[in-house]
Design a protein that fits this description.
- By secondary structure, this protein is low in regular secondary structure.
- It has a domain at 317-420: Alpha-Beta Horseshoe (Leucine-rich repeat, LRR (right-handed beta-alpha superhelix)).
- Helix content is 8%, strand content 12%.
- The chain has three helices and 17 strands.
- The protein has a 17-stranded parallel beta sheet, with no helix packed on it.
- Helix 1 (22-30) packs antiparallel against helix 3 and helix 2 (36-49) packs across helix 3 (54-62).
- The model is unreliable at 1-12 (pLDDT under 50).
């Protein structure tokens, strides 16, 4: 047995560490009995303990209930098997693939092994007390062995290589579940998880979204880059507060008209033109519709709670419906073909506004917006900006690519940006 380590064991056998206590691991390192990778792990743990003394480190580490080691080049976590008092471990961004040493840590309730090289998660079935588990950014293909972890409430399996989620169907206590960036084509087996409040299914290959209608307790749903076209399964999710639907093929948002609890709506990169279904969603505070086909914003002009509106890259030329939206703090209208910004003069609570890439020649209507801190006017038709001298709270005024007759900043010189 090289370097004094225990021989490799079959996956089916219980993990049996060569040393029971951290002091024994540490003393074996001092005797030169361990591999460089194992020695490195012990050295990291000594740093955590703030001492090079094996016995003192043993006492310190044995009394810890939490351990965090991020991006420390850990290849071997066998020494962690001695830290049996641990309840929470976060060892993300390392290099290990064998998680059998964790099976000794039966008090664990929270485990974060994000960003490692794990393929086999069967050892986790020996940790029945887990309530939170982060396995994101590994190399996992099979999740069937998670079915025994019935106390899990928070599970992140994003960025793996999973095709079949059916092994999760018995985890009925789950409230938070992320399955983004996997290879699944079907998630209907998850319809049993009716306690879910947060669900992410981005970047999969799902064809049928009908089972979404069963998740009526959801407050946050992320379906960006999912290929969804028909939103009708969402109409029953009336507890939704945050909905992310970016970069799909959506044209009709009428099923959203029932989602009266919505606070945030993200729909970048779709083909939405009709905003009328949003007109009754009075709790909306944030709307983001970058790169759609919106021409008329009047359907949302009555949303009094709206504080942030992003309509970059649409086809809006008439801003008059915006004049009543006086609670807006952030407004982005870059790339729309706007010439007349007079309706914006009433939006006195605005802190940031983006008007790049339009056809604006007169910025005098903005002179009333004295709460502005950031103003973006790149690539318009401005010849003068003297009227902006009243905006004394401005911290950034971007004026690139305009035919200005005078490049004198109407405010402090360091506020204005004229060149790239």
């Amino acid at each position: 047995m090289a370097w004094g380590e225990a021989p490799a064991q079959a996956q089916a056998e219980p993990y049996s560490p060569p040393y029971e206590t951290f002091a024994e691991w540490c003393q074996s390192m001092e005797k030169g009995l361990l591999s460089p990778q194992t020695r490195h792990t012990i050295e990291i743990l000594l740093l955590q303990a703030g001492t090079k003394d094996c016995q003192a480190a043993h006492v310190f580490l044995s009394n810890q209930t939490r351990l965090r080691i991020w991006m420390a080049e850990l290849y071997d976590i066998a020494p962690l098997s001695s830290l049996t008092h641990l309840r929470e471990i976060s060892i993300r961004g390392n290099r290990f693939d064998d998680i059998r040493p964790l099976t000794n840590l039966t008090h664990l309730t929270t485990l974060d092994v994000m960003g490692n090289r794990i393929t086999d998660i069967s050892p986790l079935s020996d940790l029945p007390n887990l309530t939170a588990l982060n396995l994101a950014y590994n190399r996992i293909t099979n999740v069937d062995t998670l079915s025994s972890l019935t106390h899990l409430s928070d599970l992140d399996l994003s960025n793996n290589e999973i095709e079949d989620f059916s092994g999760l169907s018995e985890l009925t206590h789950l409230t938070h579940l992320s399955l983004s960036h996997n290879l699944a084509g079907d998630f209907s087996s998850l319809s049993t998880l009716t306690n879910l409040t947060v669900l992410s299914l981005t970047h999969n290959s799902i064809e049928d979204f009908s089972s979404l209608s069963t998740f009526t307790n959801l407050t946050k749903l992320d379906l960006s880059y999912s290929g969804i076209q028909d939103l009708s399964p969402l109409s029953k999710l009336t507890n939704l507060e945050e909905l992310i639907l970016g970069y799909n093929e959506i044209t009709d948002i009428s099923p959203l008209s029932t989602l009266t609890s919505l606070i945030e709506l993200w729909m970048d990169g779709n083909q939405v033109s009709d905003l009328r279904p949003l007109s009754n969603l009075e709790n909306l505070e944030y709307i983001r519709l970058v790169g759609n086909s919106v021409t008329d914003v009047s359907p949302i002009s009555n949303l009094e709670n709206l504080t942030s509106l992003n309509l970059i890259g649409n086809q809006i030329t008439d801003l008059s419906p915006l004049s009543s939206m006086t609670n807006l703090v952030g407004l982005a209208l870059k790339g729309n073909g706007i010439t007349d910004i007079r309706p914006l003069s009433t939006l006195i609570n605005l802190s940031s506004i983006s008007l790049d890439n339009n056809q604006i020649s007169d910025v005098e209507p903005l002179s009333t917006l004295t709460n502005l801190r950031n103003l973006f006017l790149t690539n318009n038709q401005l010849t003068t900006v003297e009227s902006l001298s009243s905006l004394t709270n401005l911290e950034l005024l971007v004026l690139k690519e305009n035919p200005l007759s005078d490049r004198t900043c109407p405010l402090e010189d360091d506020v204005c940006l004229f060149e790239r």
